[in-house]
Amino acid sequence: MIYNDIYEIGISFYGKDVDLTPVNYSFMISDSIYSIFPKAKLSINDNEGLLQQYLMSVEGTDIELSFGYKNNFIKNKYVVNTDSIIDSYAGKMGGYLNIELDHYLKTHQRKEMKVYKDTISRIIKKILDKYKFSKININDSGASDYYYQPFINDFDFIENFLLPFSFSNNSKSSPFYCFINNNNEFNYRNYMSMMNGKPLLELKQGTNDLSSISPTNFSKITRFRTDTKFTYEKRHRKITKLLENGVLEIKEDFINDYPDIPFGDLPLILPDRENFTGSLQLFDDESTLGKKEINMGMKIQSMRNAFALERLLLVLPLNVELLAGKNVNIIINASNSDKSSDSYSGEYLIERSFHKWEGQSNLAETTIIVSRKSMQKLDTNIYPVKSRLVKS
């Protein structure tokens, strides 16, 4: 449905458009490089309870959402996970119907019992032959070996039996991520490949002037922090492996060893070089190249949640091009200046995107969480930073 001659906003229910104007409902769709499946939340003004009578909110119901501008919009299919009613009317089933949605493949996939003998990326390509996506982006990976799918869903197999061992000589020791974005695009990509190449867009800081309102100008920016539990154990690890002669081999690594080439001059978290903060035990068998690469993949993939160390949250007018896994160049003004900040401006990876429609206020908005591994070196003539902190 074209709304206000600007937006494409639509809800379909088993292939049939829901006959509601967008002012009567709100929704948010979200994706993340850390989760295979995107999600959505839908809130509908169902005063008379008609949508419930038509069983729209029954668990397992197929719902498709489209959102964007009339010439540029995204679309994805979901299934109802659960629903609830708020502000219900006495003696009626009507009220605001809140529906939580999962991507349709979370329940529309097969359980299989199979064995594969191939590289991980080729196995994933074989699995995806059964499914439809708007686009498929797969980076080649090695770690050729036997992989057993023990009668579980295909995407559980990918997430728990393939992704943790992914390795490529071209990834520069950066981890792989597997996710479906808000436009139903499947991605199996390493961090290096997502950050390489020309940024999708340049995002700038907006002003209070109405003329500065643009899908590429952010109105809000703030630091975004995750719990230290994601990084602490990775700062200095003891890596162990039992050799054929029964000797326990002990090595060590540090959080800043990944990737093996720096993205910037200043690491954002210093490793603890005096104390071990975590450990990882590798497989004993390295009799083939594939098995060696599995162990290398284990070391790198275990860094996935600790790989990006600096995060920002940005709010913009609706921009459906901003999806998880996209690389953007962000221009951030320095404090009390119209000039850009050398330390904060630069290229970031979109980790999560949230696209929101609020019907009652006619608000279409995008929120993204972006991250990077390191930052540019600070000018020590201006910033009193100890010299040991500005060494790469």
Looking at CATH, the homologous superfamily of the largest domain is: Bacteriophage T4, Gp27, baseplate hub, domain 3
State the CATH topology of the largest domain: Elongation Factor Tu (Ef-tu), domain 3
Strand content: 35-45%
Order of helices and strands: EEEEEHEEEEHEEHEEHEEEEEEEHEEEEE
User: What's the CATH class label of the largest domain?
Assistant: Mainly Beta
> What's the number of helices?
5
CATH architecture of the largest domain: Beta Barrel
Average predicted confidence as pLDDT: 89
Number of strands: 25
What count of domains describes the coordinates? 4
Largest sheet: 15 strands, mixed
Q: Which features characterize this protein?
A:
single chain, 392 residues, mainly beta, Elongation Factor Tu (Ef-tu), domain 3, 15-stranded mixed beta sheet, three-stranded mixed beta sheet, 5 helices, 41% strand
Plain-language structure description:
There is one protein chain. With 392 residues, this protein is mainly beta. The protein has four domains: 2-106, Elongation Factor Tu (Ef-tu), domain 3; 111-194; 196-226 and 308-389, Bacteriophage T4, Gp27, baseplate hub, domain 3 (Elongation Factor Tu (Ef-tu), domain 3), CATH 2.40.30.150; 228-304. Helices cover 10% and strands 41% of the residues. The chain contains five helices and 25 strands. It has a 15-stranded mixed β-sheet that branches. The protein has a three-stranded mixed β-sheet with strand order 10-13-12. A three-stranded mixed β-sheet has the order 18-17-20, with no helix packed on it. A hairpin with an 8-residue loop joins strand 7 (72-86) and strand 8.
